[in-house]
Amino acid sequence: MTIEPAPAPRPNHSLSESRRAALAQLEAEAIYVLRDAIAEARNPVLLFSGGKDSTVLAHLACRAFHPSRPPLPLLHIDSTWEFRELLQFRDWFARHNGFDLRVHHNEAGRAAGINPFEHGDHYTTVMRTDALKSALDAGGYDIILGGARRDEERSRAKERVVSIRNRHHSWDPRRQRPELWNLFNFHLGPQESARVFPLSNWTEVDVLAYAVSRSVELAPLYLARPRSVVARDGQLIVVDDRQRMPLRCGEVVQVRKVRFRTLGCWPVTAAEESDAETLAEVLAQTLRSRRSERSGRLADRDAGDSLEQQKRDGYF
Questions:
Q1: What is the DSSP letter of 155?
Q2: Looking at the structure, do residues 212 and 224 belong to the same domain, yes or no?
Q3: What would the pLDDT profile of 148-169 be if each residue is shown by its tens digit?
Q4: Which of 15, 33, 35, 196 is the most buried (most CB within 10 A)?
Q5: Cβ distance 207 to 53 under 8 Å?
């Protein structure tokens, strides 16, 4: 896949004046948090999944410190079940924007054959949570920036902009600090770190509208393209690697025009049929949608309160 450099940012006059004003306010707030966090950090890092939220956050980091190179690296926790298009986009984005890209896998989990088809929540723990904690320990990072938003999922709605973690990277919602008048406390105790979320007050629509208004290049998976899929449990799963995709009896791989609203590991992230081939069309379609953003995350269906437990254990 060849990705052309994004055009220079320019105002998008298809957005309403009130929408542009709201985006400007959100942009200013996020840049303020980014600058404040980096000023207080000893060794910061930005978690980059290649999804729309982390891409917009990384773009904001570039704007916050322009014309200098971004003063922190990108860290990608590669589950080893990532979309190939996403990995290509990740590498291009880091190179194009002058980021130092660091990639971490759980090699022990890979060697043990831990996979999303057979191991469910255990797979997430081993290949996401444990891998993240290992990478943070190895890097010695104190301020960890991420693109999580409060509107995305109920356990994330409990987060502050600055969320303190203990030496095991555990999160305790009862130890949240007050954040009055947009004043953020970055003070860390011994062996503590902070997860910082500059996009906390954004919504899915805000992220897409901002990407449209600033011509931010997002991963091609967000745009509708003909892709090989299999229908499973009422959802469309893109067959990203046929050799690693165990088909059930009666399943047939077919080509459908699909895109994604949220990105995770390809075996457990459902696509949706769509004709939206540009970000502006994706934004319009999202505004009309009555489905939740994470409806394509198959692991969420049976997760119950396990997502919050994963966060308590160190998951982002």
A1: T
A2: no
A3: 998 887 777 778 999 999 999 9
A4: 196
A5: yes
Same domain for 162 and 129: yes
Q: Are residues 241 and 200 part of one domain?
A: no
| Domain enclosing residue 80, as ranges | 17-216+305-313
Number of domains making up the chain: 2
Does 205 share its domain with 285? no
CA distances from 107 to 46, 78, 114, 149, 307 (A): 22, 10, 10, 30, 24
Q: 240 and 166 share a domain? A: no
Query: Are the CB atoms for 132 and 315 separated by under 8 Å?
Result: yes
Tens of pLDDT, residues 167-209: 999 888 888 888 888 889 999 999 999 999 999 999 999 999 9
Is residue 209 domain-shared with residue 263, that is, in the same domain? no
User: Strand, helix or coil at 114?
Assistant: coil
Q: Which two tokens stand for residue 262?
A: 């949220």
* Segments of the chain assigned E as strands: 44-47, 74-77, 101-104, 143-145, 162-165, 193-196, 225-232, 235-238, 254-259, 270-273
Handedness of CA 144, 74, 6, 63 (dihedral sign): positive
Q: Which residue has the tokens 């896949």?
A: 1
